[in-house]
Design a protein that fits this description.
single chain, 2 domains, five-stranded antiparallel beta sheet, five-stranded mixed beta sheet, binds zinc ion
């Protein structure tokens, strides 16, 4: 093990995020060289580093090609800042010369600019995906009631549409169609690439003149609840999205409309994320939680759709 020199210790202590180049104690003649070496330690090679003060993106080594999770910027010819969006890590390296007192401020600004650029890109992608969602939705026909997913779940298609073999669940944000969830014949579900995800929701039934609204995770659960109870059911898609969806709904609906969170009971999963997140969403808006009641001896069902199906199959 190599012990850092006193000088290096001082440098390390001075800035918590000083990265590979300085840690190694190497002195570099150019920032391009320093950054190349630092990135190589993350498995990134062959980049043509441009120390032009602009923000540059590159693929991280741990995600598929084209991920553009990595970024760097050289605010001066002595300093480079780089990081990875998906891990949140950020490093500053220098050519190893005397630290420029302006460099820390430059670094913060560079990071800020990189983040703003990333945000702008994300919003632009979301807008493109929303456009695609609207095109697909407009071109799609009503869902076939004999679609394998619907027959397996024994559910009517309600408002779903279909493109080829995919069922399309429209996802709205503030009343606008912004994304689509595709349900494949075997039940795999996937939203369109790059679309808005947080706070988006779908609806089974109609909110008009309803005095009670349920919020559930999946479309099938929502459809089964709507069929059983005759109330509109909002589809939040997953447990983490229950709270943002519940909050928006509470803001939009009149106070005398009761909102109830219909939980998935992930009783076979550590920490029961369905029930846990449902309780948090309910707490956030002062709502009650509705838990599924399982048929006696059932060791399979976890949500309202399962229970409805279980009952139908027992009767049949
Ligand atoms: Zn069951």
């Amino acid at each position: 093990m190599v012990t850092p020199s006193t000088q290096e210790k001082a440098r390390l202590g001075g800035r918590a995020d000083v990265g590979a180049a300085s840690v190694a104690g190497a002195e570099y003649s150019t920032i391009e060289h320093a950054l190349s070496d630092a990135l190589a330690a993350h498995g990134i090679t062959g980049l043509a580093i441009r120390a032009d003060g602009g923000i540059h993106r590159f693929d991280s080594a741990d995600k598929p090609k084209g991920n553009r999770n990595g970024w760097y910027v050289c605010p001066t010819l002595e300093v480079a800042v780089y990081g990875f969006w998906h891990t949140g890590e950020q490093h500053t390296i220098t050519t190893g010369g005397k630290a420029d007192p302006a460099a820390a401020a430059e670094t913060r600004l560079a990071y800020q600019r990189a983040r703003e650029q990333r945000e702008a890109e994300r919003r632009a992608q979301q807008a493109r995906t929303a456009e695609q969602a609207r095109r697909w939705w407009a071109a799609a026909g009503a869902a076939d009631p004999n679609h394998p997913y619907l027959t397996k779940k024994r559910l009517a298609p309600y408002g779903l549409r279909q493109r080829d073999t995919m069922l399309l669940v429209p996802l709205f944000h503030d009343g606008e169609l912004v994304n689509l969830e595709r349900i494949y014949p075997h039940g795999a579900k996937k939203a369109l690439f790059g679309g808005r995800a947080k706070g988006v929701a779908s609806l089974v039934g109609s909110l008009a003149s309803a005095d009670r609204v349920l919020v559930a995770e999946g479309w099938a659960t929502a459809a089964a609840l709507h069929e059983a109870m005759g109330v509109p059911v909002v589809v939040a898609r997953n447990a983490d999205n229950l709270e943002p969806v519940a909050r928006r709904l509470r803001q939009r609906l009149p106070d005398d409309v009761t909102i109830t969170i219909a939980a998935d009971d992930d009783r076979f999963t550590e920490g029961n994320p369905g029930a846990t997140k449902a309780r948090l969403a309910a707490l956030a808006i002062g709502a009650k939680v509705l838990m599924p009641t399982f048929c006696p001896g059932c060791a399979r069902c976890t949500d309202f759709a399962d229970v409805a199906l279980c009952r139908k199959e027992r009767v049949a």
